[in-house]
Specification:
The protein contains 18 helices and 7 strands. By secondary structure, it is an alpha/beta fold.
Length: 361
Amino acid sequence: MTAAPRRNRAVILDNNVWSYLAAQSSDVRYVERAAKRGNWTLLTPPSILLEALRRPHARERRATVRAMSVGPQRRRVLPEIAMEVDDFIALVGRHLPALLRPTPDRLRRKALDDYWTAGIWTEVANDDRHSHQNQVAAASQRASLIATARENKTSLGRIGFDARQLHTLLHLTDERAPASYLLGWDGSQREAWRVQLRDHWFRALIWSDHQRDRSAALYREWAGCHLDLDAISAAGPALTELFLSTVQPIDLPHAWFRWAVNMAQEARKIGSGNAVDNQHSAYLPNADLFITADRRMADALAIASGQTPFPVAHTLLAIVEPLHTFASRIGDLLQEQVAPESTTGSRHEASRGRMSPPVTG
């Protein structure tokens, strides 16, 4: 009897890994061959492309972008906002189908899909200067996010928050909160993730001025292909009940995991790269393995994945030095991973204790 062919597994390489590999084109080819031998597909998320586009030196930036975009074994994926929105649309369709558009705008959705899986890659291959300038400008606007994260860290410190006990984190408000915020909630204790995911979606689709808030505008652009946004705005109490009483983490895996990673990040030193790292984390429910050279990110992902009630990619921390053998170490990591047929439990459970030694220096 002929054995069934092994399915390709999915690995995501962090931007820092691609940048080290890009220093030598032969290193990129080596990793491609290792991926092929190990039945790995290299997922290339837009968030990692956009982070690479922020690099100040044009030669290094273009080499990194070329390394991740050109060659075999790659598969481009939709942006994290699209994956979050698709989860939310499915949730609404199951519980509040009246909020769906009678006729989805499939042409607009296809245009968005095509741009993020093909168009933007073609743009930056031809001339990345405009995209680079846009990403530098966007990065300069993240100061407010860092300030908010530091305030949250201080608040969490006051209550003795332990990021390894996310299930114990509760959220409550008081009767002085405006009705426009409560929307049917009496302010009593709820699991923190329920309240914060509700607030995340309400900011994206209801509360924010999407004319000024670029993030909210993007969420609305994707969501509006399938959801009646006017009906969504009028359904605050019904959505509040859905989030606070019915939703489970598996219903919104991409947004839930981003929340868990954010909480793990805020329990540690706040860095300028936290927001970007959090974007990357949204893709881990779609992969089997994530390799990074960023110790802080690896630590946050380990804390979050250890408490995640659905499978996510396990994270490996790559040793950078000596650089001339970096590609062989990445190839070895791909070869060493357990085949999916023999893996038991969720992906993050299968990886415990298999972190590479920390980055030196």
